[in-house]
Amino acid sequence: MKLLIVEDEPNLLSVLRKGFTENNFEVSVCLDGETALEMIQNNDFDVVILDVMLPKVNGIEICRRLRAIKNFVPILLLTALGTSENIVNGLENGADDYLVKPFKFTELNARVMALARRANLDTQKPDIIKLEDLEINGKTKMVYRNGNPILLTHKEFRLLYYLAKNKGTIVSRNQILDNVWDISFDMNTNVVDVYINYLRKKIDKPYNTKMIQTIKGFGYILQTENE
């Protein structure tokens, strides 16, 4: 498994490199954001561990730039900035997970493994999910409604895909955070609601039949209005 660690603290970088190498990862490292962008675009990494406060280009900007060019390598942000606002900012700019310093290596390793497994499953499933005139291709990441292509961001697609895999079933905000953002705790954030609204504007607003429905007190469900 190929792992890139982007961290400008040499001592921490050395510890992480040693730990993941002993766990049979193929580890690459770099110390600044500019080099990280170049390495990510020229190599196929399974997961990237990314510090936020980096020289030249910070971690949030790296996430934003990669997602803008449709590079969806799994990214775990590793930083001392642990407020809800910092976490939401990282996730909304394309990070898949977020771990606050100080941390236990065992937890970091478990999160990296989870990201890698999920990414591997995504690439192995060329499935197409259909609900009336909505079509979602899990391999190409393309979405169509009534034959019209709908352009979604990385996180918008993952949210829609998760709802579609569970179509007809109510999923809670915490379930969505756990499965779409890889976070298994309630951050008291409205990031799920924000992204549901983003999806509704693209998936539902232009069409008569609305599919993304809110079930008050429970969560969200993808189904047609007459179901």
Commentary on this structure:
This protein is α/β, with parallel strands linked by helices. It is 42% helix and 20% strand. The protein is built from eight helices and eleven strands. It has helices spanning 10-22, 33-42, 59-68, 84-92, 105-124, 154-165, 173-180, 191-203; strands spanning 2-6, 26-30, 47-51, 75-79, 97-100, 128-131, 134-137, 143-145, 148-150, 212-215, 219-222. The radius of gyration is 18 Å and the shape is elongated. It starts with a strand and ends in a 5-residue tail after the last strand. The mean pLDDT is 88.
Low-confidence stretches: none
| Share of residues in strands | 15-25%
What best-fitting shape do the alpha-carbon axes yield? elongated
Q: How many helical elements? A: 8
Radius of gyration: 18 Å
CA distance, first residue to last residue: 44 Å
Instruction: Compute the number of strand runs.
Output: 11
Q: Give the mean pLDDT.
A: 88
Derived from helix and strand composition plus strand pairing, the structural class reads alpha/beta
What string, H for helix and E for strand, traces the elements in order? EHEHEHEHEHEEEEHHHEE
Give the SSE layout.
Layout (H helix, E strand, L loop, with lengths): L1 E5 L3 H13 L3 E5 L2 H10 L4 E5 L7 H10 L6 E5 L4 H9 L4 E4 L4 H20 L3 E4 L2 E4 L5 E3 L2 E3 L3 H12 L7 H8 L10 H13 L8 E4 L3 E4 L5
Parallel strand pairs: 1-2, 1-3, 3-4, 4-5
Antiparallel strand pairs: 6-7, 7-8, 8-9, 10-11
